[in-house]
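Hey,
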Amino acid sequence: MKNAAFIFTIQIFENSQSQMVFDYIEYLILLICFMAASILMMLIPIILCYSMLDNFIRMNGYKKDIKERTKSEEASSKYLKAICIEYNKASSKFFKNLSALVTWNIFSFIYVFFGFENFNDGLKEYFYFPFAVLQSLSKEEIFDSIYKFQSNWLFMGAIVLATFSFSFFGKYIGKNIAKV
């Protein structure tokens, strides 16, 4: 009987330890997801802007090469065709990133303008949101932070989805513009 009680006590102790480990792993996964989502939301416009400028510079370089090559060589050379293909790719990527960046800015402005009582408070809240989420993450309040920032998460998630949707439209627009 004493052995059964001892084994039962050890089993309860092991179950509580395994529950603590499970809770800790769950907390770490949620923390990593929140941090990744917050960082991603802050970096999307920066990445889009950098990529757009890079593709614009490459697009102009290819355009100059095409003009120079058509003056000096045959228009049917393999090198000229390769430059035209690269120009089309750079142009497509430029318009893709441009449309995504414009979409990000328009929807962010709409959110700040209509989502808050005044524009200044909206701007402060908009840029403070990722940091507020990271500051609110503690073991006891991780699930509370989901509900506390629920509307912010929904609007920012919608902005991200709209941005990626319009980037695909911009890609096709860029392909058509480059062919002209």
